[in-house]
Amino acid sequence: MRILVVEDEPTLATQLAEGIQSVGYVVDVAHNGVDGHFMGESEPYDAIVLDIGLPQMDGITVLKKWRAAGRTLPVLILTARDTWREKVAGIDAGADDYLTKPFHMEELLARLRALIRRAGGHASTELVCGPLTLDTRSSRASVDGTALTLTSHEYRVLAYLMHHPGEIVSRAELTEHIYAQDFDRDSNTVEVFIARLRKKLPPGLIETVRGLGYRLNKAQ
Amino acid sequence: MNFALLRNSLRLRLLAGTLVWIVISILVAGWGLGQLFHQHVEAQFDAELKNHLDQLTAQLILDEQNQAQVRLLPSDPRLNKPLSGLYWQIDRIAAAGEHPTRAVLRSRSLWDETLAVPADTPADGEIHRHRIEGPQGVALRVVERTVTIDTHSMRLIVAANESLMTGPIADFKGHLWLALGILGMGLTFAALMQVFVGLAPLRSMQDALGRVRHGDARNMEGTFPSEIMPLVNEFNAVLAQNAEVVDRARTQAGNLAHALKTPLSVLANAANAPEKRDDDLARLVASQVDTVRKQVDYHLSRAQAAASVQVPGMRTAVEPVIRGLVRVMERVRADRHLEFVFLPDPANPAFRGEEQDLQEMLGNLIDNASKWARSRIEIRVSDGAGRLRVSIDDDGKGIAETDRDHVLKRGVRADEQVPGTGLGLAITADLARMYGGDLVLARSSLGGLQASLILPAV
């Protein structure tokens, strides 16, 4: 899962990035509206945390532009003004949820998780695929109740597949969703993570679709 | 009737001023015209009498016995008609050793009367005028002249009833005053029209101002005469400036909030970081940040409301505000699958106040209801006697009667399990009271809480 944080206050942006990374997501940070808009439109994020009061281009405008361009990903807006006018404006511009500053990081993470879950059509915080269970709150995976020990990259690959069960996910797509933008990407490493995951998971759970990518086998 | 009020009435001043001058002008004109006509008729009358006298003088001769004779009698038929009002008479004035004889000759119209003219002795040919009493005691206007032929002096007299002159004058004056009376009424009517039509824009200006005060309009609308338009424009400018001041105050308050809250977020996040859980300082910072946030929220909302309550001409439609807030709730609480039922008032009443304040009050109440509702929220708008009532019912667990007053106090939360500041209800109640309204909590027929917001309507 890859998240974009658009926040101009550097300390808060860092805190947000660290907080979100701590639950197993990959985070990119933009510090102004123009950069944020560009990144949100060109990179495949799974959710965006967007501050309303941004330099160069305000958050509402950025959000409207994304929605006008057909970007349907969940967006959580952060508002400092705490007025209902701003909340209504934000929701009408296409936001999925809002949070008023100052906020508790736990609440932001809970809202973010709920948004990603809702976007994937999942009702519960626990994603289940056959014997495999992924608890998005605690960022833990287990097979038949036995907890798996996963590295953060392995977790990210598995979580992305779990959010899209039965779908074919290309290697490029996986790469884009498990690495931050400025990370030196090498799609071969995805194969390494898949190979490691296969060792830890029951056989046949992750299928390789030749020439296309990987698929989490729902039937099992 | 209040005299001070009358003295201060522009309409009355204009009317009284105009009416006084109309009356004075008409009186002077009537008197002047009457005098002119009188003089004119008198002169003409005298000229006619003198004409007759000249005619008589020209025809006077003495016969062989030195008796006065008139060769050709004047032709005016009135002189032959008894007591017609036009007479002539010739007296003989006593010369040395003679007796004066009155009326040696006279017109037939005198019948057997004679004219008694004061015995003065004018120079020969000189014309004298008199007013005497004639036959039947009628006032006569007289011209006389003494003519001497050889040594015989004679007084030639022509007289006419004064009423022949005063009659037409009286007639004329009657007509004149009637005409002037009609003119006066016409002028008075014109003055009334001028005052009422001329001052009508003031009336419509008052109406326009009233609409502003009642919140039906943001500024004075309509076209006014060029004398009043600058006043209206100035007033609108003042209104606009007022609104701008409020807007600026709000923006500044918002900016302050923004400026404060981002650093507060940083502090709170730092203090709440997992590795600081057991740090006393971190706990202190976290709790103080929370207090600061509450204080900022509370005082900002009050300052913003206080600024706007004083601005006239505010009017906010209720329905779009509620629909906007319901949209927010439906999106934000999508996973709760709440059913929002909105029952608008057919009269579509508007709130007399700022949109943002209405949003704040209703937002807090609807947010509160959607936190506690199990499945259904009903929002009802009703209108009556200048008051607007928005009732929000939920089917949650409600608030016990004994706790209802308590939760309206600042910072008190009925339950700590659902996130919130605990300020919503208190801010809403404060705002409502600032607008002269109220917030009433009661038990809902749906089972939960019914929050009713009562506000001034437009």
What portion of the residues of chain B fall into strands of 2 or more residues?
Answer: 15-25%
CATH architecture of the largest domain in chain A: 3-Layer(aba) Sandwich
| Number of continuous helical runs of chain A | 8
Number of helices of chain B: 10
H/E element order of chain B? HHEEEEEEEHHHHEHEEHEEHHEE
CATH topology of the largest domain in chain A: Rossmann fold
Describe it.
By secondary structure, chain A is α/β, with parallel strands linked by helices. Chain A folds into two domains: 2-119, Rossmann fold (3-Layer(aba) Sandwich), CATH 3.40.50.2300; 126-216, Orthogonal Bundle (Arc Repressor Mutant, subunit A), CATH 1.10.10. Helices cover 41% and strands 22% of the residues of chain A. Chain A contains eight helices and twelve strands. In chain A, the strands form three sheets. Chain A has a five-stranded parallel sheet, with helices on both faces. In chain A, strands 6-7-8-9 form a four-stranded antiparallel sheet, covered by helices on one side. Chain A is globular and about 55 Å long. Chain B has three domains: 1-198, no CATH class; 243-309; 316-456, Heat Shock Protein 90. Helix content of chain B is 50%, strand content 19%. Chain B contains ten helices and 14 strands. Chain B is rod-shaped. The model of chain B has no long low-confidence stretch (mean pLDDT 84). The A-B interface holds A 9, 11-12, 15-16, 19, 22, 53, 80-85, 87-88, 91-92, 95-98, 100-107, 114, 118, 123 and B 254, 257-258, 261-270, 272-274, 289, 293, 297, 324-325, 327-328, 331-332, 334-335, 355-356, 359-360, 362-364, 419.
